[in-house]
Amino acid sequence: MSGSALLFLVLGLALIGWLTARARAVRLSGTARLHSLPGQHGWYVAMWVAIPAFVFLALWGWLSPQLAREGVLASPQAAGLPTFAFERSAILAEARAIARNPDLGAFNPQAELLAPVYRTYLTRYSWIGTAIALLLAFAGGAYAFSRIAPPFRARGHVERGVMLILLVASLIAILTTLGIFGSLLFESARFFSIVPIGDFLFGTHWSPQVVSATDPGADLGAVPLFWGTFFIGAVIAMAVAIPFGLMSAIYLTQYAAPAVRRWVKPMLEILAGVPTVVYGYFAALTVGPAIRQFAVAIGMPYASSESALAAGLVMGVMIIPFVSSMADDALAAVPSAMRDGSLAMGATKSETISRVLMPAALPGVVAGILLAVSRAIGETMIVVMAASGAATISLNPFDSATTVTKQIVDLLTGEAEFDSPKTLAAFALGLTLFVITFLLNIVALRVVKKYREAYE
Amino acid sequence: MHAPAPTASPKMSARHVNVFYGRKQAIDDVSIDVDMENVTAFIGPSGCGKSTFLRTLNRMNDTIATARVDGEIRLDGEDIYASDMDVVQLRARVGMVFQKPNPFPKSIYENVAYGPRIHGLAASKADLDRIVEQSLTRAGLWGEVKDRLNDSGTALSGGQQQRLCIARAIAVDPEVILMDEPCSALDPIATAKIEELIHELRGKYAIVIVTHNMQQAARVSQRTAFFHLGTLVEYGVTSEIFTNPRQERTKDYITGRYG
């Protein structure tokens, strides 16, 4: 039976369980006072029908393909399979695809040979899975149904069931993060077994297109990438985003009339909703060439149209609403008693802002800036479209610069072998970026927390 | 409306003041004089408008977008709601102490130096030091903080914070000090210190204090104004208000019939 049909069948059973349990509880309520409402008894039974079956199906969905694969490998038809792991997996995957959809033509004759075997196993395990799931649904339902009685506290049990479901939902996000981190770590470990970590972190030469076979570390020094990322994301972009973001936040929170604020704030938020790819072509097609022309005009004939300045400026504009809304929150969190205290001393608005509000809001503002930096250095689309691929270290904003994210995209798109240092370097870069943004976020969140405590 | 108590030389005088928050009228036709010689207390049940009226005296209601004030309030004969009135200058002359102590998150020294700095009252560092010391001394706090002027003002106890706020207000050498329930967040000992301080400051500044504590009004003030539902019910010499109120509503409030 197909997965979705089974899913609906179990849900149908749960519905039937809900209805019968509720009916039974209603009947019981005629004879004695129920502890829980009939509907709560219904939910109790429905949960016992659905949850064990779903948990089993999730596990089975992960386990059964492996069991089927084992079965196929053990069959006599598999004797002729090549021993090389990569080729072997390819053939098995193809056989599996044919087994599921016989209309597909076989590319590899061996796959065609294995397909019927695969189909037998897949069908067998599918039926076993269906049978066990239904059995669990019935057994759970019967157990729960048998417990329905006037004093039974279905209400409390349902509450715990709800908690369990919510817990699982939140675990999924956490487990995914851990999984991503684990895979990054694993691939990076493979990379660092080929390239010394010191060469990668401190090497100043980056040319992944031609990696030396004898000394791969010499061509995979990531410092130019780190520099480019820092220069574009943390220097140029912040030079745009911090002043404009702060000033707009101050205007909106302290000066703007409510009517103005009602209009300007959503407009600013629209800026945050523009897809980054739109910013990307804006940077690549408009800002980049304009900056190049400007650079040529002021006497730099070889200026790049993929300058650090173009990508950084546009990225800065993209981050303005982010900085503005963080600063807005920080300023709003300063108790109004501070503002009143200063105004009552005869201070003007701008004196109050610069001498009392900003110093008080500073930790929150700094945290916001750190989060903005972490967003800027992880930003990909703008730099993929507007930054250069050439890894150079230069203080001149009109020169080309590249970033970690841009290089990851370049390394992983197109033809690539999955165990060359060139490809694995992408994971090491990804890990570095992950660690840096993670640290930035932790520091920022701690600063925010400490600062919130200061005002209760 | 009862006529304002006669005073020789009113420091501030309000005539027919109305305050609106949007459509809601919070103060209805209040006229009152305050002078330098007497501490004036505003009493009345919660929501009677006493704090709102206090805030019209240094135009702090301006910070509330929906608030509107009409009528006439004069400081030394000068209309403070006139269009050419400099609000910033006005607030330097009419200082304010709030209900909850609100020292800035700066050092004790910087808290007191804040006003003199923004108004350019100190010609030199030595001058500023002198103003800070003098203000803290007047607020009765110098002895307690003179060795830790660089500690944060927010690290002081509640009562000390409130005296710091009074020192901060004194530092710009105001003529009037408005106190909006300055002791409501303090314990009895800290309250006693603030009351003692008010006695000492009397005569140097015109002091107006809003309080919901009638004993406190009786202890610290010489003039008492009783507000109810946005109107000024009775205004007179404190001892008379408390022993021999002329209005039935005042009597009911003072004897605890409502409040």
TrEMBL record, chain A:
Residues 227-444 form the ABC transmembrane type-1 domain. Its main location: membrane. The keyword Magnesium does not apply. One of its GO terms (cellular component) is plasma membrane. InterPro entries: MetI-like, MetI-like_sf, Phosphate_PstC, PstC_N. CDD domains: TM_PBP2. Belongs to the binding-protein-dependent transport system permease family. CysTW subfamily. This is Phosphate transport system permease protein.
TrEMBL record, chain B:
Gene3D superfamilies: P-loop containing nucleotide triphosphate hydrolases (3.40.50.300). CDD domains: ABC_PstB_phosphate_transporter. It comes from the Bacteria. GO terms for biological process: phosphate ion transmembrane transport. It holds the Pfam family ABC_tran. GO terms for molecular function: ATP binding; ATP hydrolysis activity; phosphate transmembrane transporter activity. PROSITE patterns: ABC_TRANSPORTER_1 (PS00211), ABC_TRANSPORTER_2 (PS50893). Keywords: ATP-binding, Nucleotide-binding, Phosphate transport, Transport. GO terms for cellular component: membrane. Residues 12-254 form the ABC transporter domain. This is Phosphate ABC transporter ATP-binding protein.
